Amino acid sequence: MPVSSAFRREIFSLPDPAKGSGKGALNLSFLSTPRQLAKGAYWGQLSAPMKSTIIPLLVLSATLAMSNSARAELKVGDKAPEVTGVTEAGKPLSLADVYSKQAYTLVYFYPKADTPGCTAQGCSLRDGYESLTSKGVAVIGVSHDNATAQKAFKEKYHLPFTLIADTDNGVMNAFGVSTYPGGMAHRQAYLIKGGKIVYTDYKGTTSKQAEAILEVLAADKA
User: Fold this and answer.
1) pTM for this entry
2) Annotated active-site residue in 11, 83, 118, 174
3) 123 catalytic, yes or no?
4) b/e for 55-77, b at 16 or more Cβ within 10 A?
5) Which CATH number is 84-221 given?
6) Residue spans per domain, the chain
7) 74 falls in which pLDDT band (50, 70, 90)?
8) What is the pairing mode between strands 188-193 and 104-109?
C-alpha cells in the first residue's frame, strides 16, 4: 500500500505525550491494535484518511506476527535440521556434513550483516574462536543477507567462520526461526552435538555469545 506524503507529514507531526522521550522523537506506541488505537490519546488527532490508512496496516501487521509466531521452535533434544545453505563464497554447504565432522556445531542467526548488534555477536565469536574450535565447535552464521553482503561483513571484521546467505529463508524455516518483515531473522543460536540440539538461545546473545557457549560446553563436559 503506497503511503502518501500527507500521511508521512501527519504521522511525523504528532507530538509525543510521554515525558523525557526526547525532542523530535517519533512515538509509534499508538500503533497497537484497532481497539486500543480507538481508545488512545492520538486517535482524535488523526484525520479520516489517515485512520483509513492505519487500520489495514494494523491488520497486516497482526497477520504477519501470527504467522511468524506459529513456527515451531526447535527444542533441546530435537534432531538438528539437515539443510543445505549457500555460503558467503556462493558455494553450497550441507549442515549434515558439518555435524558429522565436528563434535559440536553452533548455528546462530542474526538479523542483518554489519549492524551494531550483529557485529558485536560476530566479533564475540571471532574473539572466542580459538577457544571454541579447541573444544571441537564449528561456527556457522546465518542471515537473510546475500552472499556479497556476507562476504563483505566477514572480510571487514575478519570473521574466521562460515556465513550462510539465506536469501530464501530455507535455513531459517528449517530451524523454525521467526523473521521480521522483509525476511530478517530474529537473533537465535543453537548448539548441536551428535546431530541433536543440546542448547538453545531464543533471545540471542550479542557481545557475550562466545562466553555463553563456552559456559555450556564446560557444563556439558562436567
Assistant:
1) 0.70
2) 118
3) no
4) eeebeeeeeeeeeeeeeeebeee
5) 3.40.30.10
6) 5-69, 84-221
7) very high
8) antiparallel
